Amino acid sequence: MTISRNQLIYGILLLIVIVGPLILHYTGSYYTVHVIGLVGIYALLCLGLNITIGYTGLLDLGFMAFYAIGAYTGALLSIAGLSFWMIIPITIIVGGAARLLIGAPVLRLRGDYLAIVTLAFGEITRLVLNNYDGLSNGPKGLPRVGERILPVNVFGLELREDIQFYYLILAFVIVGIIISTRLEHSRLGRALVAIREDELAAELAGVNVARTKAIAFTISGMFGAVAGTIYAHWIGFISPEMFTFMESVLLVSMLVIGGMGNIAGVILGVLLLVGVPEVLRSTLGSRFVDYRMLLFGAVMVIAIIFRPQGILPSKRRALELKSEETH
């Protein structure tokens, strides 16, 4: 049996993501392991957002709302005594249902109008969490004093350290990549791309546009909710200020810079906008924090000028942009 070049590259990358953090942990680089875990959470979020923006072409600026819904659902159920593995399927249903609830009335909107509505939903969700003390404990966050989020138990082992949560997050990211890959090459995935290219032509070709968009919204909401639940159990505390509009913008920026519609590009975008800044923050300290947003803006401008399709775009999208430039 011969191994192709791509299989060899993917095998090496998989070995690095499995062994690398373990080496960092045992050499005392605990903060770096924590940052890598954070990269995994954002990768899961971006895989979900990539389904609506990258595959379907629907501009969504309120995706953090479903991250928040997943985090609060997971935290409240855990405080009530449910285990992490019982909470995950409930979270998936709640996240998908919430996404469908907001998606159904606005699926006829496109472009700027859809972006404004989703942005509003994201802010409404944050304000409700901030003001509904009885459920969310308001700006003080969860858990309340005297309460606690139950630890995650995997095969009898309670996860306590960042390195342990890292492997849990990695497992969910791998499942997310498999689902995204299967979706991209499925009939539904081709329908999503058809809608992105020309909604009217897709409808004339027999695609049920409304139903297909609703499915894309629902699946992406499930990704966001699962990421939120894992985050709540990992960090052990959540508050409304963690789910702001700027976080949604950051997610979209990761897709734009990495390459929308391409899973490898999505992961690269997360590494560049989450992993690299955190490493720079740890090495440069407060000096970097002062210039962080300036750096983001500069990277975005450079990317739009020289790589409008992203650093690692999907082959199909890169050809489309190249074709547009030649006309």
Descriptive terms for the model:
single chain; 327 residues; mainly alpha; two-stranded antiparallel ribbon
Give an overview of the whole structure:
By secondary structure, the chain is mainly alpha-helical. The protein is built from 15 helices and two strands. It has a two-stranded antiparallel ribbon. Strand 1 and strand 2 form a beta hairpin. It starts with a helix and ends with a helix.
The amount of helix comes to over 70%
The total of beta strands comes to 2
Low-confidence blocks of residues: none
- Give the N-to-C terminal Cα separation: 46 Å
Mean pLDDT: 87
Helix and strand element order:
HHHHHHEEHHHHHHHHH
Short description:
The protein has helices spanning 5-26, 30-55, 64-79, 84-106, 111-131, 133-136, 162-184, 187-197, 199-204, 209-235, 245-258, 263-284, 286-290, 292-306, 315-326, and strands spanning 153-154, 157-158. It is an all-alpha fold.
List the helices and strands and how they pair.
Elements (H helix, E strand, L loop, with lengths): L4 H22 L3 H26 L8 H16 L4 H23 L4 H21 L1 H4 L16 E2 L2 E2 L3 H23 L2 H11 L1 H6 L4 H27 L9 H14 L4 H22 L1 H5 L1 H15 L8 H12 L1
Antiparallel strand pairs: 1-2
Helix pairs in contact: 1-2, 1-7, 2-7, 2-10, 2-11, 2-12, 3-4, 3-5, 3-10, 4-10, 8-10, 11-12
